[in-house]
Amino acid sequence: MSEFTVTVFRFAFFILLWLFVLGVAGVLKRDIFGAKRGPRKSRRKSRKSGPAANPPPAPAPAPPTAPPSRAPDRAHPGSIRVTAGPLAGTSLILSGAPVTFGRAPDNTIVINDDFASSRHARIVAQNGAQVLEDLGSTNGTFVDGSRITSPVSLSIGTQITIGHTTLETQS
User: Fold this and answer.
1) How many whole angstroms separate alpha carbon 140 and alpha carbon 125?
2) How far apart are alpha carbons 55 and 76 in whole angstroms?
3) Using CA atoms, how far apart are residues 143 and 166, in angstroms rounded to an integer?
4) With CB atoms 3.0 to 4.6 Å apart as the test, which of 85, 110, 123, 155 could cross-link to 74 if both were Cys?
5) Whole-structure pTM over 0.90, yes or no?
6) Rounded CA gap, 92 and 99, in Å?
7) What pLDDT score does 155 carry?
8) How far, in Å, CA of 162 to CA of 137, rounded?
């Protein structure tokens, strides 16, 4: 091999090595400081679907009409119990005060799970009913297997999934 070829290989290896180092630094930065926030993504989605933004609000009123039809069938929950996950068996009475879920230590129920956000979801009392709302979590909050995008009224037996933790409302 000529000296020129060896020099070209050295520079190519040097460039690949620095690209690897910069990639590792980027991953570490995301792990330490977190990924970019969700509102930026939602703004992009709303820009892309500007003309189509009118049809999604039409289905939005449909979910609020569905829970009231279910509400008379089942009573409002009085407690919530963790049925799966590291906190399985933990129970909490819903007294009307907001109940928060997430990884942050000041939440009512602290969920140590990589798939839970610091402030993931909360249950609040509204008009005598318990309402669950997602607080802009990255991986979403699931009620009876469906991801929620707006506040949902809870009834007895409703299953809530946050990461690998499943909770169930009880009487």
Assistant:
1) 21
2) 32
3) 10
4) 155
5) no
6) 9
7) 87
8) 10
